[in-house]
Design goal:
89 residues, alpha+beta, two-stranded antiparallel ribbon, 3 helices, 2 strands, 17% strand
Length: 89
């Protein structure tokens, strides 16, 4: 399985007050997402499943950037000349 992560150092990004992204407290939604991922085990949850549970792509990407979750391509399916990638988090 290939990874869809792009190398990123979240410590370089910060708020205007100088707080590094990795030092900010987790929101209730981030905690809920991490709890759902922890319950899923090593197989993770598809991105579609996370979105269906009300999580935003931007928040999931932040968890990935900060190393709290990992997004990876679980499967590639070709349908009529187009490729569909199933992403697990």
């Amino acid at each position: 399985m290939s990874r869809c992560r792009v190398p990123y150092d979240s410590r370089k990004e910060g708020d205007s007050d100088g707080t590094a992204a990795s030092e900010r407290p987790l929101s209730t939604e981030q905690r809920r997402a991490l709890a759902m991922l922890a319950d899923a085990g090593q197989n993770g949850v598809t991105e579609a499943g996370m979105l269906a549970n009300g999580f935003e792509t931007k928040m999931l990407a932040r968890l990935d950037r900060e190393g709290l979750a990992t997004a990876k391509i679980a499967e590639r399916v070709e349908d009529g000349g187009r490729v569909i990638e199933v992403v697990c988090i």
